[in-house]
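Reminder to self: C-alpha cells first, then the designed residues, so the page reads top to bottom the way the pipeline ran.
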C-alpha cells in the first residue's frame, strides 16, 4: 500500500511513537531488530494502534526507508550506524527529559570552578575568586533577603557563578556483566546500557574533545566500541572487578586529557581474580584474597590520579562496607542507586565532576 503523511498529523505522531517504542525495545533486546519488531507489533495490536492505511508491513518498510535498519544477506533486518546513533540520541533525550534540578545526583563538588564557560550553579564567594565571576542577580537577592535593602552589602551576600573547565576529560565506563545483573527477575543490565548509550551521545555531541571508553567485566574484562553498545548483554560470569580496573588504567594511560576518571556500574561484590594464569573464583561471601587484590587496584588508581565513581545497583547492607572501603582507598565517590533512576544519577554526576580539576 502506498501512503503519505503530513508532519504533525495523526499518522505522523503514531509513526514517531512507534519509532520511540522500537528503540526502547532494542535496548532491552540487545539490538535484535527482528525480535524488537515482533514485540512492537504485538503491543500495537493489543492497543489497537494500527490503522487501515498503516499496518505492520508499512512500518517495516518505513523502517528500512529511514535508513535505521537494513536487511542482511539472509533477509534479516539489522541496525545500521544511523540506527545506532538514533538509539543513543533517544536515550540521552529520555534521560535529560526526566532529570530535574535537585534530582538524583544533583550535588556540589568541592573543587568546581576556574576559567571556562559559565555553568548553571553558583556558590558563596571565596577569597581569591575573580571579580568577573560574581553573579549580580544572586548577590542582590541575598542582600535583599538579609537586609530588605536597608543596609550595606556584606561579603556573605556575594555569590559567584561556577565555570566549566575547557580541558578534555577521559572517562572509562566499567559495566558489570556478571550473571547477577539479571538475577531473580531484576533487570539491571538494561539501565546500564541506557547509561552507556546516553553518555556516549552526550560526550560525542557536547564534548567532542573528551573520550569515552566502555569496558565490560565478568570473568574477564574487554573493551567494546561505542557502536556495539546496543548489543551488550550479561552472561554466566563471576565479577572480576580487578580485571576491569586494570584494563581501564591501561586505556587511560594512552589518553592525553588532563582529567581522567573511571565510572563503574556494578551490583555485586568482586568474586574473581586472575592468579597464576587461571581464574580464581569464590562466589560465596567476600573472599579476603579477591577483596585485597581489588583494593590494591583501587589504590593504584588513586596514586595515578584516577578517581573512581562507583554506582552500586543494590542496597545490600552486606556489600556497603566493602564499597565504602573501596571508595576510601581510592578517595573516590560511591552511590547506592536504584536501577530505575541510574541514568539520571550518572549523567548529572558526570557533568558535575567534569567541572572540577581531578588531581
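Designed residues (359 positions):
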Amino acid at each position: 500500500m502506498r501512503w503519505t503523511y503530513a508532519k504533525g498529523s495523526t499518522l505522523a505522531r503514531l509513526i514517531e511513537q512507534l519509532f520511540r517504542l522500537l528503540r526502547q525495545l532494542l535496548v532491552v533486546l540487545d539490538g535484535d531488530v527482528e525480535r524488537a519488531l515482533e514485540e512492537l507489533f504485538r503491543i500495537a495490536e493489543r492497543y489497537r494502534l494500527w490503522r487501515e492505511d498503516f499496518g505492520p508491513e508499512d512500518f517495516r518498510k518505513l523502517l528500512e526507508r529511514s535508513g535505521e535498519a537494513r536487511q542482511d544477506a539472509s533477509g534479516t533486518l539489522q541496525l545500521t550506524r544511523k540506527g545506532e546513533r538514533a538509539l543513543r540520541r533517544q536515550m540521552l533525550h529520555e534521560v535529560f527529559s526526566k532529570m530535574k534540578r535537585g534530582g538524583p545526583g544533583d550535588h556540589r563538588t568541592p573543587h568546581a570552578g576556574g576559567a571556562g564557560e559559565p555553568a548553571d550553579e553558583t556558590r558563596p564567594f571565596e577569597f581569591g575568586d575573580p571579580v568577573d565571576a560574581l553573579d549580580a542577580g544572586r548577590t542582590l537577592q541575598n542582600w535583599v533577603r538579609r537586609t530588605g535593602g536597608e543596609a550595606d552589602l556584606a561579603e556573605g551576600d556575594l555569590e559567584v557563578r561556577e565555570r566549566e573547565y575547557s580541558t578534555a576529560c577521559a572517562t572509562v565506563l566499567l559495566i558489570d556483566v556478571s550473571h547477577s545483573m539479571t538475577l531473580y527477575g531484576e533487570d539491571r543490565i538494561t539501565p546500564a546500557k541506557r547509561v552507556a548509550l546516553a553518555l556516549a551521545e552526550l560526550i560525542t555531541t557536547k564534548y567532542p574533545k573528551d573520550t569515552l571508553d566502555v569496558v565490560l567485566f565478568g570473568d574477564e574484562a574487554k573493551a567494546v566500541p561505542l557502536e556495539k553498545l546496543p548489543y551488550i548483554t550479561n552472561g554466566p560470569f563471576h565479577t572480576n572487578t580487578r580485571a576491569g580496573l586494570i584494563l581501564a588504567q591501561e586505556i587511560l594511560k594512552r589518553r592525553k586529557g588532563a582529567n581522567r576518571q573511571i565510572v563503574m556500574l556494578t551490583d555485586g561484590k568482586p568474586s574473581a581474580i586472575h592468579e597464576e594464569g587461571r581464574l580464581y573464583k569464590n562466589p560465596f561471601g567476600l573472599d579476603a584474597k579477591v577483596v585485597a587484590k581489588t583494593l590494591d587496584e583501587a589504590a593504584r588508581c588513586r596514586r595515578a590520579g584516577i578517581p573512581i565513581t562507583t554506582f552500586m545497583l543494590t542496597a545490600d547492607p552486606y556489600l556497603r562496607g566493602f564499597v565504602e572501603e573501596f571508595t576510601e582507598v581510592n578517595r573516590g565517590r560511591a552511590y547506592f542507586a536504584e536501577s530505575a533512576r541510574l541514568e539520571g544519577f550518572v549523567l548529572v554526576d558526570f557533568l558535575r565532576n567534569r567541572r572540577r580539576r581531578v588531581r
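The longest strand covers residues 116-124.
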